[in-house]
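Example (one chain per record):
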Amino acid sequence: MRVVGIIQARMGSTRLPGKVLRPLAGEPMLARCVGRLLHARTLSQVVVATTTEPEDDAIVDACRARGWAWFRGDCEDVLDRYYRAASRFHADVVVRVTSDCPLIAPRVVDRVVGALGDADLASNVIPRHSWTRRRCGWTRWSAPGERTATPPPAST
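Predicted structure:
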C-alpha cells in the first residue's frame, strides 16, 4: 500500500501572504513541515501540491532546490489538485496536510495512518473520509464550495 503525504501550499494566503516560505527558526515554514513528514515511517512519499499561479513559482523553486516531489494544479479547484497529485504519485492512501502546520508530529501521522482501517484519506483539517469516494466526487462535484479550500465530506 502506497501512502502519500500531500502538503497543500500556496503563496496567496489572504491573512499572511507568502507565509509558507517565511522563515521559522532559520528555515522556511514549508521546510519544517516537509522535514517533519519525512520522519513519518508510514509515508511512502511526501509531495508538495501547489498551484499554477506565477507567485507559486517560488514554492516549486524551493522544492527543486531541496529535492522534494511537487505537483502543480488549479488554484481554485483544490479537490482537482489533490486528485491529480495523488494520481501522479500513485497514492493508495492520502495523508492531507496544510503547509502552515510546521509542528506536525511524525508519530501522530503514523498513529493516524495505522488507525485508518479501510479509510484511505487522513487529514489534519477535515474528518476522516474515503479517498476512493472523493475520486468519484471528483467527477461529480461541480458547485464552487465542493471543490475549493476544504472539500466537502465524501458521499456516494
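Caption: Residues 127 and 153 are 8 Å apart (CA to CA).
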